[in-house]
Design a protein that fits this description.
By secondary structure, the chain is of the alpha+beta class. It has a single domain, classed as Serine Protease, Human Cytomegalovirus Protease, Chain A (Alpha-Beta Barrel). The protein contains 4 helices and 9 strands; from the N terminus they run αβββαβββαββαβ. Strands 1, 2, 3, 4, 5, 6, 7, 8 and 9 form a 9-stranded mixed β-sheet that branches. Strand 7 and strand 8 form a beta hairpin. The longest helix has 19 residues. The protein starts with 9 loop residues before the first helix and ends in a 7-residue tail after the last strand. The N terminus and C terminus are likely disordered.
Length: 208
């Protein structure tokens, strides 16, 4: 497996988290444009325009860990801005998993966002082996523990010092591994959508 292009930076470690409102509304970036994830994919600006227009919000479920049997809420707004795919939705507290996630998000125990999609148009750079994705068919957006893109996070209302310390330690560990020529370990979880890498957005990669 190819190693990441660079070590985590302070800017990426302290990327905006998902925000959480009192009514269970969450907001964050599910995908970031122009950033290379752990699978060496780079989503380009405009990649979601066609799928959002064709599919609509209600046909993009909010899941937990890309599990279709674990719907936890609904998306209220999905749109591209200059930075990436901004997602705003609401967890459903009447659902047991949604209630649990709301508590975990509030203390910063989990805050990753990840997309499940089928690649519609992409090109691989022959020199860097980076796959630039120009169009996707977006299937779902999940709240996950380890996103593939570090910056794909829910902007947490309450900052968690414990999580910050854990991420800094992770970043230092990755730096040591890379300097020794060893590739970092990837999540053992397999993507549920065939033909598309599981894009998670944290230290792993953006949504699938």
């Amino acid at each position: 497996m190819l190693a990441p292009l660079s070590e985590p930076t302070a800017a990426s470690v302290f990327a905006p988290r998902t925000t959480i409102d009192a009514d269970g509304t969450v907001e964050g970036y599910a995908s970031l444009f122009g950033e290379v994830d752990q699978a060496r994919d780079m989503v380009m600006r405009g990649a979601f325009a066609e799928t959002l227009a064709a599919r609509g919000i209600r046909r993009v479920p909010m899941l937990f860990q890309h599990d279709p049997s674990e719907p936890v809420g609904i998306w209220l707004d999905l749109r591209e801005d200059h930075r990436g795919l901004l997602a705003r939705g609401r967890l459903i507290p009447e659902v047991a998993r949604g209630r649990e996630l709301l508590s975990l998000l509030r203390v910063g125990a989990i805050d990753g966002l990840s997309i499940g999609f089928r690649t519609a148009k992409a090109r691989i750079d022959s020199k860097t082996r980076i796959r630039r994705i120009y169009a996707v068919d977006l299937w779902e957006i999940s709240i996950v523990t380890f996103p593939m893109l570090m910056g794909a996070r829910i902007r947490a209302v309450k900052h968690s010092p414990a999580r910050t310390r854990a991420e800094l330690e992770w970043a230092r560990t990755v730096g040591v591994s890379n300097s020794a020529g060893a590739a970092p370990r990837r999540s053992h979880r397999r993507p549920l959508i065939t033909g598309a890498p599981a894009k998670r957005t944290t230290l792993w990669r953006q949504a699938w």
